[in-house]
Design a protein that fits this description.
single chain; alpha/beta; Rossmann fold
């Protein structure tokens, strides 16, 4: 139980300001790292922290955040449950990061309400290339599908229903090499690492893997620490709420 998550909505202005300060404070740690992923992370942090989001991205983000509000109101979702989705400020970070990285093939574990999917798909749409495959149980996809269609991003995203442990493995060969992934489904150390290890052989050299909620529980802190020890991970970038693993190869 997290008392803050029971009381404070993830889209509150005060929380957004605090996260933007956090993003700005992380920038000095990225100086001197010149690989493509680190540069993209630094650009995304800087732009969201300062509010300098490109106008074309801002228009998509406004549509997504309107949809977020409609989902919360329409389903009468309690404040604590709204934290299942990334807060808007981190959604903007995902849009900026995906836009900078310009992946051809992206993967997401944990579609949820489809909001994080939409932030990433919007970047792919603006880039004019790329596709994201997102996995979750049918109950969540029943919410995500119409939302993505209404926003106008369903052509950029394929939603795969079922138990992720069963549905992901047979799809990996078809979407590899994967340039970018978001892991946000099983918030246990064992589940997170099992997913990462299953995904790893299908990642492109120099790929970026984003993990959500790396500091939420002791289990997630252990999982995030373990990611950094895996052979083939060039470096990790911890941002308190999310973490980015840079896969070796390319210019990583």
């Amino acid at each position: 139980m997290n008392p803050l998550r029971d009381r404070v909505a993830p889209d509150s202005a005060a929380l957004a300001f605090a996260h933007r300060l956090l993003m700005a404070s992380a920038l000095p740690r990225l100086r001197g790292h010149h690989d493509r992923v680190s540069r993209a992370v630094a650009t995304a942090l800087r732009d969201v922290a300062t509010g300098r989001i490109p106008a074309d991205e801002r228009r998509w983000i406004e549509r997504i955040e309107t949809a977020r509000h409609a989902i919360a109101v329409g389903l009468e979702i309690p404040v604590a449950v709204r934290w299942m989705s990334l807060p808007p400020v981190w959604g903007r970070f995902l849009t900026r990061l995906t836009r900078e990285l310009a992946p051809a093939s992206a993967l997401e574990l944990g579609t949820g309400f489809g909001l994080s999917t939409a932030y990433q798909a919007a970047a792919l749409e603006l880039n004019g290339r790329g596709h994201i495959t997102s996995f979750d149980v049918e109950k969540m996809l029943e919410i995500a599908r119409p939302g993505l269609a209404e926003i106008g991003l369903d052509a950029r995203a394929e939603l795969v229903a079922g138990d992720i442990e069963e549905t992901m493995p047979p799809r990996l060969d078809g979407i590899a090499p994967i340039d970018y992934a978001l892991i946000d489904h099983d918030h246990t150390a064992a589940g997170t690492m099992a997913a990462f290890d299953r995904l790893f052989p299908h990642l492109a050299p120099g790929a970026a893997v984003v993990f959500d909620d790396i500091g939420w529980t002791e289990e997630m802190r252990r999982a995030w620490a373990a990611v950094g020890t895996r052979e083939g991970v060039a470096r990790t970038i911890g941002l308190r709420r999310v973490g980015v693993a840079v896969i070796a190869g390319g210019d990583a």
